[in-house]
Every structure is written in structure tokens, then in C-alpha cells.
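Input sequence (343 aa), recorded before submission:
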Amino acid sequence: MSAPTESVNTPGPCIVVTGAAGFIGSCVVKWLNEHGYSQLLLVDDFGEEEKRKNWEATQFIRNIERQAFFDWLEENPLTIDLIIHLGARTDTTEFDYAVHEALNLKYSEEIWKLATQRQIPLIYASSAATYGAGEMGYSDDHALPEKLHPLNPYGVSKNEFDKWALQQPIESSPTYWTGLKFFNVYGPNEFHKHRMASVIWHSVLQIEQKGYVQLFRSHRDGFKDGEQLRDFIYVKDIEKVIGWMTEKMLAKNWTAESNGLYNLGTGKARTFNDLVAACFNALQLPTNIVYIDMPEDIRDKYQYFTEADMRKLHSAGYTDHMYTLEEGVTDYVINYLHPVRYR
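Predicted structure, C-alpha cell format:
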């Protein structure tokens, strides 16, 4: 573990990463370290012992509790060069909107105001959950958030912040900012999410324990069992896109015209059957799927199809190859999940 230090005079830009103990946040911190960024302020709730393995071996200046972050900055007025705001309550089965409103909307507004006051570039996490059932499509056009109807309080809170951000005048906005609409992310460091971990994580666990994988039956006409479609994106692609934006913003090669919302998926929807087959193939086992009824508490809030329109990100200049579902699942299963390391 990198011991916290009061020194902030070492070379390199100072970057704040919120949600740094969580799944995507800790992966982004790892990417930053691997690319020479060690002057990091990690912000999260660090009391969860289960998450320690996500962040304790990384290089950083200091880890700061989320609720203490703004007061800490008042007492330690250092120069911050970039904020990567990934902290959120991401549980789509948490139906108390007040929880999501406090963490995903109000806290994000405070982060935005800090970035604006100090003119710090800001990259923040939005979500494909904002698109609801997809009746309005999956475009990251700025006219769409006002028309969207998310299916759960988590999606509502993310969409409310997107709308709020887009409503801010230029003088009340960071010089550079982007909101990234993550689609279905999977990859290492998600073990602590339990029920909310990816289907890949659950699938490998079930294969080891039972020899088969359970998938939800379809409860909608037009979709066969296991043929529900999602845009699954490997977290290593999330790291690369955030890293690309980080380097452009720090070098002042971003433009105000490029500010705004960006979808972050692969642009290719795949079925859950495809995903599970990829898990079995990675383990060199025959596919064995058992279909079960979807829990009633999520049945009317379930997305049957998501697919990111990726044209805006490509137009902004991002051209790197995205992992295919088979490539991402194989890397994740072979190098991280087999045998399952986190029970």
C-alpha cells in the first residue's frame, strides 16, 4: 500500500478520482499508475474492508473519505489538474430515490461547482440506464435527456444530473467536461458488487459450483429466452477512453465544442446466450444454460435491448479497437476469474 503523504510537490499533474475503491474507479486508477500518473487523490468510502484489495497497492498522494473531501480541499488548497468523477450509488435494485439523489445528483453538482470555480477539467460517469426501455433510441444527442424515461431510481438520478449539466451556462461550467454514458461494463475488481456484479462474474461462479449457468427467461414477446440484448463493454476499454480524454484535457488538446455527453459501449448489442457461451468457451467446456423466471421486483424495469450509438466518440477522434465480447470475456475469465478468486 502506498503510504499517504502530505507532500504535493512531486512532479506530474494532480488528478482526483472519486469512486476510487470501486470497480471502474480502481481500474482507472490502475491505468493512470501504469501510464505514469501517481499524483492522485483517491476519494471514496474507504471503510469497506472488502474493497481494500482494489486500491491499497496503487500509487497515490492520499485517500480521502467522500464526505470529508470538500472540507479537506479547503484546508489543503493544492492545485488540481483534473477530476475523474466515478463515485456513485449504482445499485439498480435500490428503489429509495433519496439515496440516489444524494449521492448521484447532489454530490455530483458539488463536484461540478468545484470544477467550475477552479476551472478544472471534469470527466464524470453517466449511465445507459438513463435510456430506460430504449423507446427513444440510444443517441448521445444533447436534445434527448429531457425526453428520456429511465426505468429505475438509479437511472433517473443519472439522467437528472445529465440534464442539470446541460442546462448550465458556459460561465457556470468547467472549461472542459464530458459525461460518459457507460453501457454494461464487466471486468476485474467487481467482486464486491455481489448481486450487481456482471453476468460474466456470476456465470463463472455458477459453472464452478454447479456446472451450468442460470439465465432469465424472457417475459416479453419478440425475445426468446436468453436472447435479451445488451451492449457489453470490457472495463479495459473504459480505462482507455478515460485515459485518452485525460491526456487530451491535460495537454489542452480538448475543445469546448467537444464538451458534453458521450456513449461508451462497443456499438454492438449481443445476447446473454452469446455471453454465457463465451464464458464456457474460455473455460473449454460445453455450454450448459438453464432458464429461470426473472424476479418480479425487476421484471417491469428490465432493459431488453441496449446498443450504444458510438458516432460522437469516433467523431471526437477516438479510434482504438474495442474488445469484442469474446475477446473481453476470454481475457477476463482466463486471467482474472479462473479459478474464482473472490467468494
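Checked by second reader. Confidence is low (pLDDT under 50) at residues 1-9.
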